[in-house]
Amino acid sequence: MCYAWDAMPGRPITKPTPAFGARLAALRQERGWTQVQLAEKLGLTVKMVTYYEREATNPTAKTVAKLAEVFGVEPAAFLEPSAQARRAAKPGPPSEWDKRIAAIRQLPRGKQQKIAEVVEALLKAS
Asked: Could you tell me which of 14, 20, 15 has the C-alpha nearest to residue 58?
């Protein structure tokens, strides 16, 4: 489903997207977030998210740290390609498990630990 706010504002892209922006866009799309939703999570404008995805080549450490926090990934996920990152960037909408894991990543560490303990106990029992 396509919404009007998903459309990219401005002129069409005429130059290649920087690697940082491509990784950011891939992670955002993997989670099923629009640019508007990501902007809200970051406390930024949609224009800034568009800039980061299309043009930014050298983001600040503070920006990378904030993005990593929001996405629940290590900062290196935005800076260096890895086999894990390439596997994670699968096409299509996120699976139900991917959505659950993304929701768990947004929880406080204490709640994440409790969920991990329950999962471990279930895995050991089977």
From this structure: 20
